[in-house]
Amino acid sequence: MRRALELARRAWGDTHPNPMVGAVIAEQGKIVSEGYHQRDGGPHAEVMALLAHGRKPRPSTTLYVTLEPCSTPGRTGACTDAIIESGIKRVVIGATDPNPAHAGRGFAVLRAAGIEVIEGVLAAECTDLNLVFNHWITRGPLIAAKVGSTLDGRLACRTGESRWITNDKSRADVHRWRRLFPGIAAGAMTVLKDNPRLTARSEGTEEWCPWRFVFDGLLRTVVDKNLPNVFTDEHRHRTIVVTTPHGGLGYVRKLRDMGIKVWTFDSPTQRVPFADFRKKCAEERIAGVFVEGGAQLISELLKARQLDYLFVYHSPIFLADDRAKAIFSGLRPERLDQALRLADVRHEAFDGDSLMHGRVTYPERLLVDETAFGGR
Predict the structure, then answer these.
(1) How far apart are CA 128 and CA 140, in angstroms?
(2) Nearest by Cα to 210 from 200, 220, 225, 224
(3) Spatial distance between the Cα atoms of 275 and 44, rounded to a whole number of angstroms
(4) What would you measure as the largest C-alpha separation in the chain, in angstroms?
(5) What are phi and psi of 373, to 5 degrees?
């Protein structure tokens, strides 16, 4: 199963909106063929492994697969049918299909055909593999955010200096997560201040550009003659500016003339309605968006109950300065039971830095400070 997970990760970020899945076929404890799902619309992992096997299975043959085999025909045929037709009599499975309409059905179909099914092997690892897909298939696009902070929850010194709070290994891990998500987002002030590329760049691999979202309700990023990288680089056709009618039609035309896409959402203020943005992502089959900042954009997502998942990288330094820039703001809980929490928490370490990531859960009543933000 660990080998099947390794295979599945080869398609890291390439299968959206499908899951990553790996499969191996073993005989007498030795792997004889393997496969993984490489891209949406392509053959599934089980079929790839069976094709690689290429012969009638021996009595000792076992198929290991990281996710419950699909039991509906779809575009590529049901994997349960392919397994039954192959003659394999033992299947070991990691995670259950997260789709409530299909969960457990693949197990039942295989067992009804006389196949021994063992489920739940390395279930947590196999489930974690498909963070984006699991949310997409049950609730729609996953909106996640990443922050890097000091131990006392600060993003920058009072002077604004923030490079670098986290270390090289933490920043490399951020690029790994960037590569997973089909979209990366940043707020207007982050784009103006840091001029990021919003791409995934890892040593030894080619730069990869997802859909790049710039949240800019007033189109402030278009005003200056020195336009940011996301509007001028070789990937500008992958940039989408998310705005409101308050930004001005002239700037919208300017962006479109440069090959930049613009999503305009009706809003009584200059703030983009996040629920409408999420709905548009679903329509465009963009399964997940990784928000890189800034602090105001992420805080507004929390305030609107629209942030699903959070990655927090902590560095072992602290500023002890109440005027240093805080990670989050805009809420005013009066009791701990009104606080936001992370669920299904995972921990990782990077040479002294630590990463905590998990699903954001909201209290029944979320107390907000309506005066906290002036706009986005």
Answers:
(1) 17
(2) 200
(3) 33
(4) 70
(5) -120, 140
Q: What string of H, E and C letters represents the secondary structure of 339-375?
A: CCEEEEEEEEEECCEEEEEEEEECCCCCCECCCCCCC
Whether 232 and 198 have beta carbons less than 8 Å apart is answered as: no
| 46 is a catalytic site residue | yes
Burial 216-248 (b: 16+ CB within 10 A, else e): bbbbbbbeeeebbbbbeeebbebbbbbbbeebe
287: left (phi over 0), alpha (psi -120 to 50) or beta: alpha
Tokens representing 294?
A: 């800034």
pTM comes to 0.90
Cα–Cα distance for residue pair 290/212, rounded to 1 Å: 10
| Burial (CB count within 10 angstroms: exposed 0-12, middle 13-18, buried 19+), residue 267 | middle
Dihedral of the alpha carbons of 250, 253, 259, 262, in degrees to the nearest 10:
90
The predicted pLDDT at position 159 comes to 82
Name residue 279's beta-bridge partners. none
Q: Look up residue 155 and give its amino acid.
A: L
Q: What are the DSSP calls for 305-327, one per residue?
A: T---EEEEEE-S-----TTSEES
Question: How far is residue 190's CA from residue 179's CA, in Å, rounded to a whole number?
Answer: 20
**What is the Cα–Cα distance from 260 to 230, expressed in whole angstroms?**
9
Strand runs (DSSP E) across 133-223, as ranges?
142-149, 154-156, 183-187, 211-215
- Bridge partners of 67, per DSSP, are 95
The DSSP code for 200 is B
Residue 373: what pLDDT?
Answer: 52
Of residues 6, 27, 46, 125, which has the active-site annotation?
46
pLDDT means over runs of 10, the chain (376 residues): 97 95 95 95 94 89 96 82 94 95 93 96 96 96 95 84 86 95 95 92 90 96 90 95 92 93 94 96 97 90 95 92 85 87 95 95 84 50
Residue whose structure tokens are 């999420």: 278
